[in-house]
Amino acid sequence: MEGVRGRRRLASVLLGVAGLAAILVLWWLGVAALARHNPLAAQFGPIAAVQTLPALVTEDRLLTHIGASLRRIGVGLAFALAIGAPLGFLIGRVRTLETALSPALQFLRMISPLSWMPIAVMSLGVGDPPVYFLLAFAAVWPIVMATASGVQQIDARWVQLGESLAATRAEMLWHIYVPGIAANVLTGVRVAIGVLWIVLVPAEMLGVSSGLGYLILDTRDRLAYSELMAVVLVIGALGFLLDAAARRLYRWFGMQ
Q1: Best label site of 124, 167, 224, 251, fewest CB within 10 Å?
Q2: How many other CB atoms sit within 10 Å of the CB of residue 144?
């Protein structure tokens, strides 16, 4: 049985690698076709991007920019969890509150976080605070909805059992509700991470002096297009690793 699972995992990994390789080949062929008419297009190719990565690390402090972006992701996600999980819990528990807040929350959820850029800058100034606000605003909605859904899906028999044992509110929360909604919250966190990573790059164009979004602007202004594409590769790779970590955490929790 373990041998079959091992072969399936290996086949899955190989298929994934083949898919990535196909994308790289298509990228290289597309750039090569464009370079016949415009030599500048060659700078946007995968080979040029990979070749310039060492210079990005040593000269442009790539690791510093990665650290700044990951810090902002962590702070934005922490704010979103601190707001979204309790709000989602209340919405899932109190039907009247759900009825009252659902229209407003759906309205706010449909507004692009980037639409708040001018207001965020005007209210919070430039630097990290408006970036944190935009990231938290983008990430809070998946967490709210996933948490509310998890609360509503908890088996009523577990709640009745806790009540019949005269469990306190704190005991009900930590022994019934938290284990019951944890998987849903982690699903919301995984979705939120994907949204955060998309919003991060334009959000880091709000007057900050570090981060991958800032580095995109810097390489564009210097006409260093091969470096720009290298940063794009780094953004994709880091986003993939963050999502993989979220999936692993979800699977680990599901095995507990």
Answers
A1: 251
A2: 26
Rounded Cα–Cα distance for residues 181 and 102 (Å): 20
Q: DSSP string spanning 1-64?
A: -HHHHHHHHHHHHHHHHHHHHHHHHHHHHHHHHHHTT-GGGGGGSHHHHHHTHHHHHHHS-HHH
d(CA 238, CA 76): 17
> How many CB atoms lie under 10 A from the CB of residue 207?
13
Q: For residue range 28-38, what is the model confidence (pLDDT) as tens digits?
A: 888 778 777 77
Residue 255 has pLDDT above 50, yes or no: no
| CATH 2.60.40.10 correct for 45-254 | no
Q: Where are the domains of the chain?
A: 1-42, 45-254
